[in-house]
Amino acid sequence: MGSFHAMINSMVHVVMYFYYGLSAAGPAFQKYLWWKKHITAIQLAQFVIVSIHISQYYFMPSCQYQFPIFIHLIWIYGTIFFILFSNFWYQSYTKGKRLPRVAPQAAQHNGSSIYENGTVTNGKVKTN
């Protein structure tokens, strides 16, 4: 029972790192990254599930746990992270401060990508 939260956390991280892998693969994969908001929703669900799962030990006195301090720590972990990620959700998606931006179209000129706000050469931006 003590490894349940680790299993859920591992599954969520597989999804997260798949997303990060796609995003690191370059601009050609940007069209596949529409589901960023859903990752946060999955993480919020993870913290609710972990907190509810570990809470059963508070209501079932017959359940024995080898290290009772971990029950409290796991519950605190799930609750605090739920609060933090809820704030992230609110700031990012409700208030709209972190909504995905559409990448400006680049034109190729002498091996450099030229954007509306400047030139990118070897990963460095030079503003016009």
TrEMBL record:
Alphabetical list of Pfam families matching this protein: ELO
Transmembrane segments: 6-29, 65-90
GO molecular function: fatty acid elongase activity
Main location group: membrane
EC number: 2.3.1.199
Keywords, comma-separated and alphabetical: Fatty acid biosynthesis, Fatty acid metabolism, Lipid biosynthesis, Lipid metabolism, Membrane, Transferase, Transmembrane, Transmembrane helix
Catalysed reactions, as listed in the record: a very-long-chain acyl-CoA + malonyl-CoA + H(+) = a very-long-chain 3-oxoacyl-CoA + CO2 + CoA
Compartments, as annotated in UniProt: Membrane
Biological processes, Gene Ontology terms: fatty acid elongation, monounsaturated fatty acid; fatty acid elongation, polyunsaturated fatty acid; fatty acid elongation, saturated fatty acid; sphingolipid biosynthetic process; very long-chain fatty acid biosynthetic process
Keyword set includes Translocase: no
Membrane topology: Multi-pass membrane protein
Family in the record: Belongs to the ELO family.
Name assigned to this protein: Elongation of very long chain fatty acids protein
Taxonomic source organism: Callipepla squamata (Scaled quail)
